[in-house]
Amino acid sequence: MSVAVLPVLRRHRTPVLLALVLLAALAALASVVVGAKQVPVTDVWGALFHPSGSEEDIVVRSLRLPRTGFGLLAGVALGVAGALAQGHTRNPLADPGLLGVTQGAAFAMVLGIFTLGVTGLNTYIWFGFAGALLASLLVFALGGAGRGGATPLTLALAGAAVTALLHGLISGLVLIDQQAMDTYRFWQAGALAGRDAGLLPQLLPFVLAGLVLAMVNAPGLNALALGEDVARSLGHRIRLTRAIGITAITLLTGAAVAACGALAFLGLIVPHLARALSGPDHRWLLPFAGLLGAALLLAADVVGRIVARPGELEVGIMLALIGGPFFVALVRRRKVVRL
Amino acid sequence: MTLPASSSTPAPSGLAARGLRLGYGDRVVVDGLSLDLSGAGTTAIIGPNGCGKSTLLRGLGRLLKPRGGQVVLDGADIARMPTKEVARRMAVLPQAPQAPEGLTVADLVARGRHPHQAWYRQWSPGDEAAVDAALARTGMLEHAASPLDELSGGQRQRVWISMALAQDTGLLLLDEPTTYLDLAHQVEVLELVTRLQRDDGRTVVMVLHDLNLAARYARRLVAMRDGAVVAQGAPAEVLTEELLDAVFGLPAKVIEDPVTGAPLVIPLGSYAVPADTAPADTDTDTETDSAVGAGADDDDAGASVDTGADEGAQRGR
Question: In sequence order, what E strands does B166-283 have?
Fold first, then answer.
């Protein structure tokens, strides 16, 4: 038997994957090196591996490293979650906030501040994460309540309804509570700086679990892209595939937005970029989206430190500034890909 | 799990419906239908729009969960079999399936191997050989690297059939495999399906719209109306003038196909233009309006609608 189909199935996607790993690594390096305080690369190396307690060492180790870590975590998570959301809904405009996760996180934080007077970032991040999970469960329950069960359409509608409701409640709460207002405003824009490094290892297991579920979901998503009937006839279990996908989106988005804020655009743009490189195969698209998400988020964060010296622009604002026109260009260059 | 030696000759399968009840929402489309589709051969399900033939095929292919009764595959209730196990015995191709943009032929056909894969064994030389063989069988091997959206409609349908073939099943269910194809491509696809049935010993069940093609390519016809089987058997037994009137409400003449000897349906219409008359006939002028009116009422009188519209346009000039 000839192997005529082999080259087609294994086109040069591995080199692209390696290039993306390199790109993300470079963005991470830039994030450690570039900042208000000039630290030469050699000193960064020293700070990482032979810390001497100098001022540079402290800046690198306690400020820039955690910041880079959160960038990697949130970038990978939102990139993958965006690709999952678009794949499950077959909607090119879907984003990780589709299931009400983002507003769920925001509402829980604001509520925590308002009712319990929660102040520390470390505490209300957990409120946010819990809120994200609860909102997703609520959306899933509402979306699955009809006779047809949970379909991408009913989930998107339930997500929109829950998002609108929570948004209204948040608006009411922040009008009453000044502290909640301030926290919410900064969270809404999205930022990587100022987070406690100790949170990283606590959030990491959730993100890792989400990533594993996402990769397990890839073959099922590939089949769902051919329509539910074809997927079912190929022996895929549709409900299980959907449940795994929704769990992955919730874990990834919940952890990312609770820690770093809404970060609009990232989960919407990145899957389109990744798809241009990977084609429609989710086994490649998902890792590509994760790496591109990290690279783009860190790059936006670095640029935000440069453009407004001596101050900084928050990464969420940078993302919108870069991402908005970029997305328009993408849509203009080639029509948004049909999923 | 052992693989059958590539996709050569799967055993013919037994498929039957027993007291099957199918529907969507509050609407019951098929109620208490029993049908035996066992044995090698090609069965075509025919019937007017909305008679439930596609619903029946979806039920047989477990794409639609029965409200009652059961579908029996090789002696077992399909609802109680693991869906992957069913997919190793039966391939179902829905009507006009869609693929994401940029998907290549080989990638699509490779997805047909899912029933033979497990999380610990994603892609094997056996999968590779099956994809290769499926594409060779449909003559699409040379297009393996092409994106699906660059192919013609007929080629695309052959690729979808290749995906079903890569599943390596003894049973093939096709829902209107000729939809949106011109006559030449319809014949091409049905010739291919016949080869798959005849040379490989597969059992093929398909829903077909075109009665003459159904009569020509199927060994057995199942005629449906209002969710029930009205007649079944050899095309010559089923496709009679009485049945066409009863099932489709279509006055028609049935003659013998000069090429194959199968029944050939000639619809009778009041306003069909005889071949030897000149296009502008003053006598028909008075009847033009009523022809258009009749056309709007009855889909099947398509020929008379066209005639009426053409003549109306000519008169207007």
Answer: 171-175, 203-207, 220-225, 228-233, 252-256, 263-267
